[in-house]
C-alpha cells in the first residue's frame, strides 16, 4: 500500500467520521429546538438544567 493510498484512506475515514458527527449534532439540535419551541397545542415540558438542580 503506497503512502498516497494510505492518506486517501485516512481522509475518507476522517470525512466519514465528520459526516456522522455532523448528523448526530443535527439530530441533537432538532431535539433541543423541539423542546424550546413545541408544536402548537403541545404541552411544553421545561427542561431541568444541571446548574438549577444544585
Give structural notes:
The structure is a single chain. The chain is mainly alpha-helical and 54 residues long. It has helices spanning 3-36, 50-53.
Give a brief outline of the structure.
The chain has two helices and no strands.
Query: Nearest-angstrom radius of gyration?
Result: 20 Å
Mean pLDDT figure? 88
Largest sheet descriptor: none
Instruction: Classify the secondary structure makeup into a structural class.
Output: mainly alpha
Could you say which overall geometry the principal axes of the C-alpha atoms support?
A: elongated
Number of strands: 0
- The percent of residues in helical segments reads over 70%
Low-confidence stretches: none
Q: In angstroms, what separates the terminal alpha carbons?
A: 56 Å
Written as H for each helix and E for each strand, in order along the chain, the element string is HH
Helix count, DSSP H or I runs of 4 or more residues = 2
Strand content: under 5%
Outline the fold blueprint.
Blueprint: H1 3-36, H2 50-53
Properties at a glance:
54 residues; mainly alpha; 2 helices; 0% strand
